[in-house]
Structures are given as structure tokens and as C-alpha cells.
Amino acid sequence: MCTYLDNMDDIKYLYIIVLGDSNALYDMYLLDDYDNPIYRTGDYEDREPELMGIDTSEKIEPTITNDKWGSLCCSYAPVYADDGTLICHVGCDVNMEAVLKERQNYIIYMSLCSVGVTAAVLLIALFFTSKFFARPIRRLTEEARKFTPAKNKSYEEAGVLQMNLKSLDEVSDIYEVLRSTQMNIIDYLNDLSKLEKDKEQYMTSLRQAQDDIKDKDELLGRMSVEVYRDALTHVGSKSAYIRKADELSGMITDGTAEFAVAMVDINDLKRINDQCGHKSGDTYIQGCCQIICNVFKHSPVFRIGGDEFVAVLTGVDYQNRDRLLRQIRAEFSKCYSNTSMPLYQRYSAAVGLAVFKPDDITFEYVFRRADKAMYADKMSFKNKNGSYR
Fold it and tell me: What whole-number distance in Å separates Cα of residue 224 and Cα of residue 182?
């Protein structure tokens, strides 16, 4: 073993060691080199950290260590008896300091090369940037400062850019944009000068146009009010009702609908018109409408026919719909029972209510149930008070 050490410079330590199992914490050293005394058989030392948990009955892979013994590559070869019994291992530690130093020198060399290449690239980039970008842009800036726009000037008189650039496309693009902008400014100023001659006429035309637009807006506003408001009762018209129905159908499709429909049909309107005249009939319609609006005060009310009204209940009115239904029927019944009042002031109407359900595909489904409920209430009124023919 010592002869090996004397003739192989890279081997630093050569020794014989008996390794315990993978759970062992100590190993026996049987023989060492010149640098250390020969151990007595049975002496042991703490197991090296890199051997902790290693199955020593199998091949042990080489390990790299860097501790008090230096930077080493440690390798182990098993020694067997004739019967195949594992006796011990021969440990060989190769000095890695030269390898590590060579690697460190290589890293330093590569780092210096990288710095040099980077510096060269930066210098080349600076050169090309200065030649093809910085200098042309500096010239472009100086020429652009000479631009003095004014009315009734030609491009040359105003100092519009006129350069012969030999640079990359980006600088040429900037030049073209600036030149085009300067030319547009001169064109605009010259056009503005021409327009000023007709300024008074233009302003007169403008004021006239504004007056016309204002008159049209006012007319459209009045037309809109007339279209969506009933002329007699001032509640929503049939057109407003149709728009509301479409809106609710859209909410049903979106899954955000929550409302109820109150269908109101005035009783005995034909009797009032025949016996008291159509003017009294209009008064009768207005009185019935007033009761509807007072009860459903938080909901839109629409007159959809001569004697038919619809209220769309939402919010507070929707939450109190059953109480409001009882209230409006009670008010109509009380008013009709007051025989001391003229016939055209004894307001009466049949009322039906329907609530939107998830299986209603459109608003029309809810309206039909409300109309059916109203019809049942009207039949009850006729059975109780008779029917005018």
C-alpha cells in the first residue's frame, strides 16, 4: 500500500476499513498509510458523513468531500474471502485540489471572455446607434426647430423639413411623420385663412341650424310624451305598455324577472256613456284611474283600452300585492255602494292579479292569467249587481 502511495501522485490516502451495515455509526480502520499510525485490530472511528445510511454490502459509489482532510474523491473496493464472504473494503482518496483549481481557472477564463465579448458588442452597438440613429435624430431635431408655421405661407417659407437621410427605416419613418405633420399644419392654416372670410355667414348658418335642431328636439320630446302617455288619464299609453311588456319579456329571458300584473277593467262604462253622456264617461274613467294609481302608487299604470288598465307591480307593491288587491277591491266596492253620489262618480272596476312564475316563457303568459282572474271578478260583480245591456 505504501509503495502505491509512493508511485501514484494523485492518491493522497490509501487504507483498509471494515464497514458496518447501513445503520452503523462507527467503522473499524485496520491499516493506514505512512501519515498515520497502524491501528490495532478492533479500533474504530466515527463513520464519515458521506457513508451514513449506505448499504455497505453493495457497490459503494465514489463521493466528493471537502473537509479537514482536504478536497478528495473517495472510492471503495470490497475484499471477499474464497467463500464469497465480505471481509473489508480498500479505501482510496484521490486529491481533487488540482482538478478544482483547474475548474476555477476555467470559470475565471470564461468569465473574462464573456466580459470581453459583451464589451465588444456594446461598443459596436454604440457605434451603430450613434451613426444610424443618434446623429440623424440630432440633425432632425435641429431642422424641426426651424419650422415657423403661419397663415398664407408656402412649405419652403414655413421651414418644412427637407432632408436627405441615410439611416435605418425607423429614423426615416420619424422624418416622414414630422414632415407630413408640418405640411398638414400649413395646409390647415391656409384653409383657416380662407374660412375666416366667410366666418360671419358660417356663424349665421350655424345659429340657424342650432335653432332648427332645438325646435326639432322640442317637437320630438312632445311627440314622445304624446306617444307614451294617455291623453285622458295621463298614465302610460298602449305604446308604453307594449314597450314595458317587451322589457319584462327580456328580463324573463335573462332570469332576473320578479313582478306581478294587475288587470283592471271598468264596470258599467257603457251605462254611464248612454245615460250620462260621454263627457261624464270620461270623468268616470279618470276617477277609476285615480283609485288605481292611489293603490298601486309605486308601480307603472297603463291604459291599454277604453276601459282597461294594467299595473305592473314591482318592489314594495310586489311584496304587498295580496294586501293591495284586497284594498283596491274594497275601495271600488265602497265607492260603488255610495248611492248618494251621481252615477258617473260611483266608480267600479273588476280586478285580477297574476304573479310571474319560473315556467312563464313570456310576459303574455302572466297577462293572460291576470286577465282570467279579472274576468272571474267581473262575473262576480255582474251576478251580484246585474248586467247592463
Answer: 49
Q: What is the pLDDT of residues 330-360, one digit of tens each?
A: 999 999 999 999 999 999 999 999 999 999 9
- Cα–Cα distance list, 359 to 70, 250, 255, 352 (Å): 86, 14, 11, 20
Q: Are 116 and 124 in contact (CB under 8 A)?
A: no
The single residue listed with the C-alpha cell 479537514 is 68
All residues at 6 or more sequence positions from 18 whose CB lies less than 8 Å from its CB, including other chains: 27, 28, 30, 87, 88, 89
C-alpha angle with apex 131: 128 to 137, nearest 5 degrees? 120
Dist CA 134 CA 153 (whole Å): 31
Q: What is the pLDDT of residue 170?
A: 66
Binned at pLDDT 50, 70 and 90, residue 93 comes out as confident
**Per-residue confidence at 36, pLDDT binned at 50, 70, 90?**
low
Residue 267: Cβ-neighbour burial (10 angstroms; 0-12, 13-18, 19+): buried
- Rg of the chain over all Cα atoms, to the nearest angstrom: 53
Angle CA(296)–CA(302)–CA(304) in degrees, nearest 5? Answer: 140
Strands (E), the chain: 11-18, 26-31, 44-46, 63-67, 70-80, 86-95, 260-266, 301-303, 308-313, 349-355
Domains of the chain: 2-95 (no CATH), 104-192 (no CATH), 229-385 (3.30.70.270)
Residue 290 to residue 284: CA distance in whole angstroms = 10
Which residues make beta-bridge pairs with 262? 311, 353
**d(C-alpha 353, C-alpha 1), whole Å:** 112
